[in-house]
């Protein structure tokens, strides 16, 4: 059975749903909500569904996978946490001023 783990807090797979583990009770409600929303957002990913519900596809035979590795498999690379996002208003203003 293929499943994805998000640290010691959340485990998810299309055939088992989202499981919140006891260490998650120590997280802030906002952080826990973010993890659960992220887990549910991947429930219909084709590769994961095929591995969990049919035992086929590129993830077939994978038992457990860390969330970060799963994102890499999907080609999603999260930006480093210390990088700040530029507000669209600031970016557009800088573009119009000829800075970008």
Structural overview:
This protein is α+β, with helices and mostly antiparallel strands and 100 residues long. The chain has helices at residues 29-41, 46-53, 67-74, 88-96; strands at 3-6, 10-13, 17-20, 64-66. Strands 3-2-1-4 form a four-stranded mixed β-sheet. Strand 2 and strand 3 form a beta hairpin. The chain is globular. The chain starts with a strand and ends with a helix. The model has no long low-confidence stretch (mean pLDDT 81).
Which properties best describe this structure?
single chain, 100 residues, alpha+beta, 4-stranded mixed β-sheet, 4 helices, 4 strands, 38% helix, globular
Question: What's the arrangement of secondary structure elements?
Answer:
Elements: E1 3-6, E2 10-13, E3 17-20, H1 29-41, H2 46-53, E4 64-66, H3 67-74, H4 88-96
Parallel strand pairs: 1-4
Antiparallel strand pairs: 1-2, 2-3
């Amino acid at each position: 059975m293929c499943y994805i783990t998000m640290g010691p807090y959340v485990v998810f797979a299309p055939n088992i749903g989202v499981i919140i583990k006891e260490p998650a009770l120590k997280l802030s409600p906002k952080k826990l909500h973010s993890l659960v929303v992220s887990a549910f957002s991947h429930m219909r990913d084709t590769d994961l569904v095929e591995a969990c519900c049919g035992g086929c596809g590129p993830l077939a035979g994978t038992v457990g996978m860390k969330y970060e590795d799963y994102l890499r498999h999907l080609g999603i690379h999260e930006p480093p946490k210390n990088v700040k996002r530029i507000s669209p208003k600031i970016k557009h203003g800088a573009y119009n001023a000829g800075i970008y």
